[in-house]
Amino acid sequence: MTERQLREIRLDSCYHEATHAVLGYRAGFAIRYVSVETPDRPELRDITMSGITMAPWLAVQVATGLFAAEIAVYRRRGMERPAQAFKAWEQDCRDRELDDDYPDDDVQALNVLQRAFEAGMLPSVEAGYRGALVLAPLDLDHHWLAIVAVAHALEERGYLTGDDCVALITAATI
Questions:
Q1: Tell me: the pLDDT tens digits for 34-43?
Q2: Cβ contacts of residue 82 below 8 Å, gap of 6+?
Q3: Rounded to an integer, what distance in angstroms lies between the CA atom of residue 36 and that of residue 134?
Q4: What angle do CA 8, 14, 17 make, to 5 degrees?
Q5: Could you give the CA distance from residue 98 to residue 166 in angstroms, rounded to a whole number?
Q6: pTM over 0.85
Q7: Which domains, and CATH codes, for the chain?
Q8: pLDDT above 70 covers what percent of the chain?
Q9: Please, which residues have CB within 8 angstroms of residue 125's CB and are 6 or more apart in sequence?
């Protein structure tokens, strides 16, 4: 890979993790730290928050944040995340769930929506999926300045404390 390609991948990770941090903070979750992989601290790759309880009543909000992080990467590149029908998305998630040791954001979203449906908090998993996909771009619009601020600080430093994030989010909030 070229130096430019590596920088683009790192910047994607910065926007992705910054979105988790900003939307998580705005949802009331505590941010301990945000990081992306750096040569001197590879163990901290892509860990953002703690204290997250995947309560069923938070399912759509949590799924929205998970989707928004992926959408933010596309937005940074001037693109839109390709639309995917629910059944195809669900099957892709189930396939990846079997193959991966750690579930990606879509798999986590499916799991939290499934638990909410089973708890009677959603009429269907598909309803939660559709709702979260509608809300994710709106959340990005509302918090984009804070996401950009955290992403660029993360790109520069590789690691931000929770206090660093809160300061950046607060300063960028209109």
A1: 988 765 555 5
A2: none
A3: 28
A4: 140
A5: 36
A6: yes
A7: 3-172 (1.20.58.760)
A8: 87
A9: 86, 90, 110, 113, 114, 117
